Structures are given as C-alpha cells and as structure tokens.
Structures
1.
Amino acid sequence: MKASVRRTSRRLALAVLAAGLAGAASAQEACRGHVYLTLDTGNMRHAEEVAAILRRHEVRATFFLANEKTPRGDHALDPSWAAYWKARAEEGHAFGSHTWRHGRFVADEGGGVRYRPQFGDDAGRTVTLAPAAVCEELRRVEAAFAAYAGRGLDAVWRAPGGRTTPGALAAAQGCGFAHVGWAPAGFLGDELPSETHSNEALLKRALRDIRDGDVLMAHLGIWSRKDPFAPTLEPLIAGLKARGFCFRTLREHPAYRAGSPVPAQLSASNAR
C-alpha cells in the first residue's frame, strides 16, 4: 500500500510538473497574482534538495532560521552550515528569525514572556524572558547569519508553531521585527503524518486553495514525516506558476517591504 501511494504521488507530481513547466514562462511574464513561499529550518534534512528546486524554477523564497538540530549531528546555524546560508544569500532569498532556540512562547507573565526552548540552554524548561531577552533570541540568529552571509536578516520573524503572545509581539516590534504567520491555504502540511496526509492530497489541496497574496509555509526537513514532502515543492511551484502566480520574497510583500509600518501578524495555523 505504501509503495502504491508513493507511485501515485510521483505520477501526479510528474503530470503537474510537465503542465506547469509548459506554461510557466508565459505565466511569469503576466502575473495574475503573487504568492510568498516561506521555509522554516526544521531539521535541514532536505535543505540542499529544496535549494536545487528553487534554483531550477528561479524562485526566491523567505527562510526563517533557528539553530535546530540536524541529522548530521550539528545545528542549522553552526559554522558547518556557513556555505549553505552564504549561497542562499547570494541567490537573492530573504531571511528572518525563527528564534535561536526554537522555543514556544507560552504566555505573558508580569513584564516578561514565558518561553520554552526546544534546543540549547534551558531546553525543555519554561523560562521567563524580559523584552530585551526576547530581542536577544531574535538577534542571536542574525549575528550567526551575518557572519556567514555578510548581510543581516530582513525585518521579519516567525514564532515556532506560529504561536505568539502580545508581550512577545511587542518586544519583537520594539527591536524592529514584524511577525509573519501564513495563510490558512498556505499551510502546506509537511509536518503532518504522511500516513494520513499524503503528498498527493497535500498537493491537490494547495493547488486548489492557494490565492493571490497568500504566504505559504513549509520546512527544510521534518523529523516525524516518513514520506518527505520536499520533492512535492517541485510540482507545487510548477502548478502555481501554471495558474499565473509569481513568487516573491517578503521583502516585496506590501505589508513588510522597507518603509512599511510594522503590521499586525498574518493568520497562522494551529496545526503545529
């Protein structure tokens, strides 16, 4: 059964890819809408594969970076990943903070925010961060990235799971970061179990439901998903181009481009 599902998914992906590539050039010349692909670090297992797909389709995305553990035994913002991030910066992608320790913002408490890091210091514990410490969680990502890429982050961030608190949003805004969630249709579902949410089904839903202006969200690798979603980005991009959508980074989003007021956050799924 599992092999059959994968074969079906591959056949659908190839069919959509073929159709998409045929119409992609003309669609890109006359955009009927724009979408914004964003990629959280996740476990980085498919980071190179995703980068290759973006290059093939000449798509610029927005990466949200956290220092997450990878299958190589290192972390996504260790020096061992310097060449990867430098190359993505040279390709013209945009970059935001996903917090250094990939922690969950739990609740506001007094003048601070309760925060549960997944990695690094205090992993698995709930600590209270003052506003300056919230900024440090975001800025520490920027310091590492700048050392590798020779440029800072764009003025955007995403809380892990999309879960924020008023205190966390205010603290981040105070140090220049606007929070970005994703559109309901833009939740690509790559962190859902593949046993119940096949790549074929996720692809069909995305191609059916995504609309002009939607922010899309996926990862560079998910530990728990048995049938990786990353290859599905290829037919997804081709299919959306065939519908007339052009891809932009959040630097070009009307709510986030330079000089725009810091907006209220976009909606975020509660699926994570």
2.
Amino acid sequence: MRPDPFLPGGLDPQDARNQALLAEVRPDDWKEPVPAGRYNLVVLGAGPAGLVAAAGAAGLGAKVALVEKHLMGGDCLNVGCVPSKTLLRAAKAAHEARQAVRFGIKVAQVEVDFSAAMERVRRVRADLAPHDSARRYQQLGVDVYLGPGRFSSRDSIEVNGKTLHFAKAVIATGARAASLPIPGLVEVGYLTNETLFELTALPSRLAIIGSGPIGCEMAQAFARLGSRVTVIEAGARILGREDPQAAGVVQRRLEAEGVRFELGVQTERVARTEGTRRLDLTRGTERWSVSADVILVAAGRAPNVEGLELEKADVAYGRRGVLVDDTLRTSNPKVYAAGDVCQTFKFTHAADFAARLVLQNALFPGFKKRFSRLQIPWCTYTDPEVAHVGLYEHESEIPIDTYHVPLSSNDRWVTEADAEGFIKVHAAKGTGRILGATVVGAHAGDMIGELCLALRAGVGLGTLASAIHPYPTQAEAIRKVGDLYQRTRLTPVVAGLFKTWLRWTR
C-alpha cells in the first residue's frame, strides 16, 4: 500500500518544489483551532467542491470548518488537472518543434529533457498551491483541520480527537483511481494519476489500461515526449462516452503520432519477465502479449467513502458513492454531498457548481436549486481537443436535426495547418433550439463555452447566426452552424415568394 502523500516519503521526489507544495497544502507546523460551539457548515474534503463550499459559506458570514485528510487542493491541484495539463503543454512544445518544418521553420534536432519537464510540472503545481492553501482558507475565516474526519453522529464529525458539531455538513471527499482485478497487477506494480507525476525518467515503453480522457491525454503526452505507448481498452473504441466521429478523429491523430491501440481486448494477467512487465491479452480466441517498462491504470474512478463512518450519520451510499437527490441532499437532511464522491460528472467545474448549489440549498432552504438543471460541459485535452455539452444524438427523446461544419472550411483553421476537426450541433427538429453540441479541434474547450451559454440561455441557432465573430477565428465556425440552420428556413414556398417579390421590384 502506498503511503499517504503528506507523510514522510509519501510525495516523491522530495525536492524543493514538492517541499514548497507541502508547505502550502499540508504544513507540518499547522496549529488547529479549538472548536467552539456549533458550526453552520462542516465540510469534509478540501478539493474543488470542498474549497468552494467552505470559502462561499465563510464569505456569507457562516461559521465554517474544513476537514482535509490528505492535501489541500485535492486531486485537481496535486495529481489531476494542474500537473496533467502542464505535462501536456511540454509534450505539445516538443511536437510543435518537430512539426515546424510545415511552416518553413527548420529545427535541426529536438531533444526532450524529461526530468526538466517534470520539474516544471512540480514548479507550476507549487506556484499555484497558495490559492488552495490552509493558511489562505484560515485567512478567509475558515477553521481548517488537517486529519481524517469521520461522522460520530447525525450532526457531528470527529477529527484528531476533536468533535465538530454542525447544523449542516457537506461530504466532498472526491474519488480515486479505480483498481482493476487483473491477476499479477498489484505484484508487478503500476501507476495511476496519483503516482504518475512522480516519474523523473521517461519510460521507454508505456502501457496504458483504459482509453478514457486520462488514458488518451497521457498516451499522447508520453508519445510526444518519446515513449512507445500502447493503449489497452476492453471496449470497441476509445473515448467510449464521446461522439463516435469525435473519438475517431482523436484515434487517427494519436495513431499517426505512434500510439498503438489494442481495442476490444481483455487483460488476462500481468507478469514480470526478464526485467520487463508483460501484459497477456485476449480477444476471442486470439492470445498475445504486450511488453512495457511502466503500466498506467486509467480505467475509471472510485468514490472516497471508506473511513467516513457514514452509517453513524444515517447517510446512504453505494458502489458509486454517496446517494443524493436532485438538490444534492443525502438521506440525512442535515448532510449534503458534492463533487466526485456523488456525481456522475467527475470534473472540477462540475464540483465547483455543485458546491455553489449546495450552499444555497443547505444554508437558505427556501430557495432550492436542482442539479439536473445545470448545463455541464466537458473537454478532453488531447490534440485535437474534444468538448461537449448537452445531449448526444442517441440520447434525444425527440426528433432532431444535426448541423455539421467541418473545420477544414474555416480559414483560420487552414492558416494554422491543423488537421481534422468539426462542430456538430443537435437541435429540436424544425427549430433552432439547441439540445447538444460537440466540438473537435484546437481550443475546443474554449469554443464550447459559447454553445454552453446558448443552450443555458435558450438562444437558438438563428441568434448564433446573427452573432458577429472576428475574422479569422476558429469560433467563427459556430456562426456557420447557425447559417446552416438559416438555410433550412428557405423552403421552396418561401424561395418562390422571394423570387416573385424581387421580380416585381425590378
């Protein structure tokens, strides 16, 4: 079992960058407050959801306690969004240098210093740590307790021998990388997102089990940095949740960059042979093996509910986490939950807005808000990116029209020499009412915001067609989707009337 990251030897490498990180998110000289009276809100977990809930409640004047077992900032800062996107940027720089000849720029040789790239990952993480630090939240008026918290009754939580009584509580303990019951995997050893960023030497051969967002992002990053990458997926295709056309674009790009995919396969066992790790794969009657120096497991997330003693608080939970209703209230009316511990959408921004919703519902119960009414976009940060909001085509329960604009028709896209990409928007049939959208391309995560706003505000494709975008920009393609809809309104009858009118006015 890997040690807790805040304990000695638990956060590698133990360099100045990681020491600076720990000084912010797990200071060893932390002096805890003494509980005095009942808290308006006690928050379990200091990841994105917990931090937003604690800061928001304190800003409203509530008496707040925040309890964190591991590192302030949670997965996002320490082992998730921040380090992964920083590493992706290093990989992109290497790729752009190799591809510079397309623009008439000749680079004699591209040399990747993986150790330096990982040092920058640790530096960026440490530089951002003060935003999520224990001291900052103390300054915001939050009582911060660093240690394992557990329920002791329906309205109290114990941490480090202290009892915190609450009027309301929020469970925001997040999730962790799911384990896989593959024979030999534990014995041979493997990495997850929680340990991947401790690497200081580039693995020559990397096997990734799972082709979801984390698997695909890290496959591309390590391939661009120089590893030979094999992605192993039990499903028939990568990014199984995404639009099949979008997933196809990403797969073709990654394959062109040297990533090998083994799809529709089962990993029967893992063994160590002659200094390497061997993964035995099967597909039907076929059997073969893949060799790797390092194995990364990126196959889903498991909610962190162990050790919370939820039974003492009468909080129901299951395999997928804490059970909540549409207001994010648990089976105990005094306890709410937010973030990865209870939500299907395991994204930082989803946790953020869930925490905002919880604050209103827990502290001001006369104004209930429902989670199902939020429009939550998401993005996979491969190159090209894949972003989505709303419904997919197969999810719609009403007839739809689909409008598709390839980015190859976008002038800015051509000048940037980008490859495949598109915008696809689903609308209620015969109307411009947007139901869902997918964007594939560079900066798709930024572009989806406009479509998310349109969906949230009920702005139709006709209005998007009238929104003027700067030229040349990739976002101008969104207006072209609106133009496609406008053309459908020019029916033969309307076209005939126009011709008659124009003939009469000549």
3.
Amino acid sequence: MVGVRLRDVLATSLSLALVSGTAHAGGYSVHVIGSAQSIWTDNLYSVPESPDPDRPPYESELYHQLRPGVLVTYETPRTVHNLSYDIEANVYTDHTEAWSLQHLAGWRAFFMTSPRSELGVSALFSTGDLNALATRQTASDGTLIVQPGGSSSFVSIDVGENLQYTATRELRLTQGFRARRFTTTDGLGTETDGIEIGASGGADRSWQYSAAALQLASSYVTLERVAEMAPVDANDQINASATVSWRRDFGPRWSSLIDGGVTSIVPLDEGDQLVIQPTIGAQVGYFPNWGTAGLSIRRAVAPNLYLAQNTISDSAIVNAWLPLPWLTDDPLRPKLSVQGTLGAQRSRLIDTSTGDIESGFDIFAGDVAVNYVPLDGVTLSLRAQHLRQNADESAGMEVLSYVRNTVMIMVMGRFPDRLAGEVPLRASMRVDRSNVTPVGEESAPAEAPGGGS
C-alpha cells in the first residue's frame, strides 16, 4: 500500500509536468507548482514527554514531504481566476506505517462588477491526515490556534465571498459571506464536527490620514464532539458581533489600528446560557516597498472548529517578512529574505451550558525562515520552529500539552514562473491603500509576500 501511494505521487508529478509544459501569454496559463521538504522534529506525534499507553510514543523522526500540484490561471479585462490542486505526501524514515497523503483543491476569483464595485470569491477543500507541524503556513503567517495532539484525519471545506462598493471617494461599503466545515477523527475514536455559516456588513469612512469603520457580523454555528465511551457533546448557536475601528497612517511606511466591540453567543439549545464578551485589539504595521512587518495585541471570541469548542483568546503576536540587502541589485526583487513569527496566546473555553469561562490552553510559538531565490519562481528555505502548548488540568479535554522543535529544509517553485492572471491583493490596513495591488498586475514574484504558488 505504501509503495502504491509513493508511485501515485510520482505519477502525479510527471503528469502535471507534461500538462503544464507551456504557459500561454494570452488569457490563461498552466503551471506546475510544488515543494519538497526534509523535516526533523523531536516530537513526531505532538504528545507529552511522559509515557502513556493510550497515546503514540514521544520520539524524534526525520521525514520527507513532497507536494506536487498544478495551477491554472485565467484573466479577462474584468475577471481573474486561479484554480489549483496539489497532493501532499509525508514519507517517514522509521515509521512507514505513518505515511500519509493530503489533498488540497482551491479556487480564487476576482470580478470588477462595476466601475465602483468589485467582488472576490474563494472555495477551498482539503482532506487527509492533520499534520500539526503546519508546514503549509509560512513562517510569517502570524496566527496561533490550539490544535489536538496525536494523529487525526480531517476534512475541511471553506467558501468565502467579499463585495466592496465605493460609494464616494471617502466612503466604502463592504459585504461578506463565509461558510466552513471542519471534521476530525483521532486515534482514540474522538470525532469533532464544526460548522459555521455567516455574513457581515460594514462601512469605512476615510480622511487624509485616518479612517473609521463599523463592522457587523452574524453566523450560525454548530459544534459537536463525540468521544468514545462518553456522551455526545453538541450545541447550536448564533454568534453576533459589532466592532468599531480607527486606523491612522504615520508616513509612507507605518500604520496603526485600534478596535473595540462586543461578541455575543446566543444559544439555540434549551438550557444553555447567553454569553456576552467584549473584544479589543491594537496593531502596528510596517510596509516597506517589499515585505511587511507588524505587532498585534488582541482579545477575540470565536469558535475553534479544530476542537468544536467556543473560545476566548488573548494574544500578542509579532510577524515579519522582510528583505535582506545582500546578493541583489534590485531592492524590489531581493534574493534573500527573512520570515518570522513570535507569539503567545491564552485560549480559554466557554461553557455555553453555564455561561462560564473555563480554564484552557497557553500557546507559545517561535518560527523563523531564511529564504534564497536563485531563479525566478524557485525558492530555497531553511526554517526552524518551536511550539509549546500547555493544557490546564481542568480543561477536561483530550487535547494534550506538548513541546515540539522542528527544523526544515525546503525547495519550492512554479514553472513557468509568469502567471497570465493573479488575483489582486485588496485587504489593507493603510488608509491610503498604497499597498493594494493594482488590478491587472501580478501581485508579486513567487517568492514575495502575497505571491507564491
């Protein structure tokens, strides 16, 4: 079975290479995308160091990850489409029984629906074995989330839509929709199922250097956990939130944001309690000609679909992706860059049956990568990652405390390099929106923030 899987991966890689032999300079292009990594970790299964006969062993491992895929882009004067698929194979040196495959298919599109409005949509599907090493996210991803330890299989579906309408030069209106589902099954037979379907609307009023915004959002959420030899834990609810924010540009490179609001969890099950919690956040962002960096401090209330639990989280995160000055004459196309995330988060569980905030988890993470671009579309990377997750004894869940250190060497690329059309980057913290990608231009080289395959 293992040999068949490996042959399937190699056959897929060869087929994709033959399909994408030529990129068309007209309205569409076809590309081979992919990466290969060698990874060493001191805690393969993300488990506590103390032995437990009911859990996988605590041990180190060297393994290899192959991720071949294909990317198709299509562009017209008013639309851009990116369609991608890749398969991820994890090949373990000593634990051949743990070899795994993961599939990921995605579609992103951009539409200029009128001279004053634009629409972005996306759909993503993935399935396979949950890899807690999270190597799909870049080192500068800047997010922390409690994840179960051990080995789990999963299915994930995520669909989103965002509409922007420029009513006047100073006023922009936004509308969004999102539907997502995440299910897991671990080695102990515990199953989780989280579903969220929601919509949002907002208004943003800008002045020369400042902007104020109001955002309203509501979603239907259902969370279910089924543990072996335990009763079903499930709840249905409506989450509603209102947030007011203020942004300010400080020169051409620095911007800031503060926001505050309230989130309510309205139970739909008889006997559950209404939960109302304040939220607050602050950010500082640095936006040079190439790259980005920022500091975010935030208190947020949201369902964790990995755990099928409501959580309230307090976090402080620094993230950056910045160029290094060596080996290049063009500052907009650096050969060397550094990425990193440093953060801490306290995540507590919300018991909707009583309305109480229970104990939960502490997460500490450090992630740094140095990237080298020898050719357009090809990137070499050396990355080190430290993750510590501490679960309170009274958390009452099978999610475990663990510490994991990981070192990765990776090569990734896209051939041919040039895209016929790239979905433009529209989200921006800056009031002047100077870092928004102009429509009709490729967002960045494959190795740049916002670019890639």
4.
Amino acid sequence: MIKKLFPIAMVALTIASCGGNAQNNAPNATKCDQNAAADCCNASSQVSDYKFLDAKEKAFDGFTVYWLKDNDGERKFPFDLFGNVADDIKKEVNMPDGMPSSISAYLIKTNGKNILFDAGLGQKANGQLLNELSKVGVTPEQVDYVYITHFHGDHIGGMLTPEGEKVFTKAEVYVSRLEKESDLGKGEQAVKMSEKYADKLHIFNFGDRLPEDVLAIDAVGHTPGHTAFKKGNLLIVGDLMHAMALQLPHPEYCANFDGDKEKAVASRKRILEYAKQNGLIMSGMHLPY
C-alpha cells in the first residue's frame, strides 16, 4: 500500500558567492559573482558540502544499501555530450579523456525485504545486475519490490529475460504516474515490461510513501516522470547527473539524454540543494564508481 505524504517543501536554491552574497534561483546560480575574486570559481569550493555514497555496501539506520555496478568495464562521457561547454569549464574539470560515469542500480535490505532500485541494461546488453545481486546473496526471486526511476532502457532492460519473461517473478513494481502515462511509457520496451508485470504493477504520485517507508520525489526533466527516492538519510537521485565532475559544480549543463532540459536543470538544482541542506547521502545511476 502507498501512504500519502503532503508534498515536502524543497529548500529554495541559494548559492552563496565568495563574498557571502546570495543569488536566489538565478539561471547562472552555480557560477560565481563576476565581481568576486578570481579564485571564487574553483569547483571544489562549491561542491564540498555534498555527500555521496562511497562504498559498495553501507549500513544506515534500519537498512543496508548495496551499489550494483551494471556496466562491464569502464564508462566515460565526453564533453560534447553536454552541448557547448565553455573552455574555462573544461579546463576546470580537467578530464580531457572523458568524465567517469557508470550504469548502476541499488539494492536495499530492510526488515527482511529486498528493494531494488532500477534493473539496469539487461542480459541482452551484457548487464551485470544478476551477477551483482548474487554477490550480495540475493536471487531474482527474492526481490520483493522494484522501484523504477524512469523508463529508459538502461533502467528497465533488466526487468525481462532475453526471452521476454519476468526476471523478478515475485516483485511488486512501482513507477510514477507521469512516467507511465507519458509517450515514453507508451514505448515498446516500457509496454512489454508493463504487460508482463501487469498483475504486480503499481502507480504512484510524487510525495507518496511507498512500502518500507520510501519517499517518491519529483525529479522530472530527464524524463516526464523521472523520480528520486529517499529512505532515511539516503537519496537515490536516478539520472539527475550523467557526469558528476561537470554537473555537480555546474548543474546548468544537461546531457543530450535529458528530454526537457529546462526542467532537468531546475530539478538538478532543487534536489542538490535539498540534499545539501538536509545532510543526505546521494547515490545515482550514473555516478562514477
């Protein structure tokens, strides 16, 4: 059963300049005040307050989370994937050979239940999710819930076998209403997955509390119903960032994967500030491993 929570008030984006002045909701809020000292734009000064999951296994109050690396080998994104990145920003990031990324999923063990967040690429695309689950002692049949951030293939490809059957035969599956009702939700892969799990598929709205006290948070922009999930002090941000080295200090840059770039930027800024203000530990499906 989904428990309804009144929509949480996200903290307004406020980035302080080096001189201590605030810029509220400005389009270039992540960039330094042009009147500030030259070293103000050092990225490290802007990102030091954020917290990220830093281990394959981490215990929280009442649950343990496991980081499941789905891609085989290394994964990097070039700057040209993010449009016209300014030369000074490229120099600041200093990763000319590509910015490290990943394709990841997460498993939470809590109260004897196994919750999977996204299902990766799938076996057809050499996804490693089932191997990763095996390493933490979980079979597909032991997954109780699958919470889906969005319907892109590197997030739902692992929901079906190469033969098109259910992988997680006993799991209850949750996806946001906006994602399910969008054009993406009407795509071939999403429809096949939804049909196979029809008897187990549940639709939620942003602000709902899902089983085992997981809060569904509006992260729209990357896709129409893109969702972040919060449990305790952990915030799973989905595809909020594809190249953290660039987008954490400069969230105004979008990967070309983002469907609605204006909304994606707004969600990225809002959720990053929410996480920082509340001391949350973030994990994401494309964070560097």
